[in-house]
Amino acid sequence: MQTDQYRGYTLWGHAILQEEDVLHQERFAGSGTIMRDSKVVVASGVLGVFDTDEDAESAGLSWCRAWVDSHG
Length: 72
Fold this sequence. Notes:
By secondary structure, this protein is an alpha+beta fold. It contains one helix and five strands.
């Protein structure tokens, strides 16, 4: 899980381990959560499936920043 502070919000990028695919590779679903004052403001659904946990977390943080920019 990655976290960031952005425009007064706390952003979380999540990586959720998926079942191994037919090639026995681990895959990660990415999502994001936005909090303010210790309360959840909004959370995304699954944003996509990624090859690495870092890519999944980064996608979640990117979604969070875009949401804040469009609602701030």
